């Protein structure tokens, strides 16, 4: 029996920058996906999603996408990409379980893909680097599920280090581990608005960014600056112009936030997170009224030393906040007193410490 795990992630800052070849800074969280695999060469692959009480069966050699397959297409996509890479994926029994809430912006899909790739590679007797696994998982999500995602989520699940955030250059794939201050607390609050990346206009946002880059005349918005954007104001439609302004400013904020966190400067970090949320709301159009209210409530409760922003692909999900550890109890009380989900429930609140990336835990 082979057992593998991969954490979820929260993106501290750098939203929708990854597929624009920019910068992002996630950290891994305690919630995770676990995959157990009992190989049986020559058999079909039987996949059981224990938390959903659902399963799937297919021949790895002839794997294909299922119309409306949901989670099954994430699994099938990983198998397909491994086979394309020349890995002999055996049949057998796979069981999946996890503690990452789905549709909340904490990368349940990337965690599944990365954990699954680890288990199947181990069964095939093949060793890959964390980055290679992450990039295969990205290709798998772009394939059968059809989400034109960047590489942020998969790299975060695969290559993070305990006690650190991870500054990712999504073009060069250079990784910088940022040691977080000992008295820093990272709070994640679920808005109660469930989102879906395919139905949530993620692919539309990517197309809008590509349109902006083409008019500006750069390979990706990573290469654009404020002056270039101003120069095409009359030739670029208003929607694409605002999308580009978000990406250009968000790349700058992300690099600045990495330096601020490395220096333990929560005042600067908080300001940059608040600016990021406003940019997501006004330029990128991916926040929703509940996440706007929740971010504002958190900002007010935290004060100057820290801040909050919607995290993840957008259109709901979670809000992430950083603060001094001594402020957690008061901030939690303020959220419980001032916010209810759209269903009228108290929000789910977790306080996270940066976890390790994915790996094999038994074989």
Description:
With 363 residues, the protein is of the alpha+beta class. The protein has a domain at 2-178: Ribosomal Protein S5, domain 2 (2-Layer Sandwich). It contains ten helices and twelve strands. It has helices spanning 71-84, 108-124, 130-142, 152-159, 202-216, 226-231, 238-262, 266-284, 289-302, 328-338, and strands at 2-13, 23-39, 45-49, 54-58, 92-98, 164-169, 175-179, 184-190, 306-311, 318-324, 349-352, 359-362. The strands form two sheets. Strands 1, 2, 3, 4, 5, 6, 7 and 12 form an eight-stranded mixed sheet that branches. Strand 9 (306-311) and strand 10 (318-324) form a beta hairpin. Helix 1 crosses helix 2 (108-124), helix 1 crosses helix 3 (130-142) and helix 2 (108-124) crosses helix 4 (152-159). The longest helix is centred in the last third of the chain and has 25 residues, at 238-262. The radius of gyration is 20 Å and the shape is globular. The relative contact order is 0.19.
- The rounded Rg comes to 20 Å
Summarize the biggest pleated sheet: 8 strands, mixed
- CATH class value of the domain at 2-178: Alpha Beta
Give start-end ranges of low-pLDDT stretches: none
Helix-strand sequence: EEEEHEHHHEEEHHHHHEEHEE
The helix-and-strand class reads alpha+beta
Number of helices: 10
Give the overall shape. Answer: globular
CATH-defined fold name of the domain at 2-178 = Ribosomal Protein S5, domain 2
Mean pLDDT: 94
Query: What is the CA–CA distance across the termini?
Result: 6 Å
By DSSP, the count of extended strands is 12
Helix percent reads 25-40%
Can you tell me the CATH architecture of the domain at 2-178? 2-Layer Sandwich
The portion of residues forming beta strands comes to: 15-25%
């Amino acid at each position: 029996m082979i057992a593998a795990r991969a954490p979820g992630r929260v993106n501290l800052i750098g939203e929708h920058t990854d597929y624009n070849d920019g910068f992002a800074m996630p950290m891994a969280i305690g919630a995770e996906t676990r995959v157990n695999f009992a190989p049986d060469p020559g058999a079909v692959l039987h996949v059981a999603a224990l938390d959903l009480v659902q399963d799937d069966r297919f021949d790895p050699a002839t794997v294909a996408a299922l119309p409306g397959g949901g989670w099954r297409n994430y699994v099938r996509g990983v198998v397909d990409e491994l086979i394309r890479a020349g890995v002999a994926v055996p049949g057998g029994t796979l069981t999946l379980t996890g503690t990452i809430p789905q549709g909340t912006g904490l990368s349940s899909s990337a965690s599944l893909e990365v954990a699954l790739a680890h288990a199947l590679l181990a069964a095939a007797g093949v060793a890959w680097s964390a980055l290679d696994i992450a990039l295969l998982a990205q290709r798998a999500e772009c394939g059968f599920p059809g989400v034109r995602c960047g590489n942020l989520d998969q790299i975060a699940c695969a290559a993070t280090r305990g006690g650190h955030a991870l500054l990712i250059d999504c073009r060069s794939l250079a990784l910088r581990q940022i040691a977080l201050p000992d008295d820093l607390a990272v709070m994640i609050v679920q808005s109660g608005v469930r989102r879906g990346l395919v139905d949530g206009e993620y692919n539309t946002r990517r197309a809008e960014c590509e349109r902006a880059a083409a008019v500006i005349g750069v390979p990706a918005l990573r290469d654009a600056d404020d002056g270039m954007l101003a120069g095409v104001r009359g030739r670029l439609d208003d929607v694409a112009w605002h999308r580009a302004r978000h990406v250009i400013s968000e790349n700058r904020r992300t690099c600045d936030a990495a330096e601020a966190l490395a220096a333990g400067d929560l005042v600067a970090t908080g300001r940059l997170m608040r600016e990021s949320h406003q940019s997501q709301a006004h330029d990128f159009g991916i926040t929703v009224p509940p996440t706007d209210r929740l971010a504002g409530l958190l900002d007010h409760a935290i004060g100057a030393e820290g801040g909050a922003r919607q995290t993840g692909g957008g259109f709901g999900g979670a809000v992430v906040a950083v603060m001094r550890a001594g402020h957690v109890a008061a901030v939690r009380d303020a959220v419980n007193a001032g916010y209810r989900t759209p269903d009228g429930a108290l929000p789910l609140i977790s306080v996270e410490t940066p976890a390790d990336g994915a790996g094999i835990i038994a074989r």
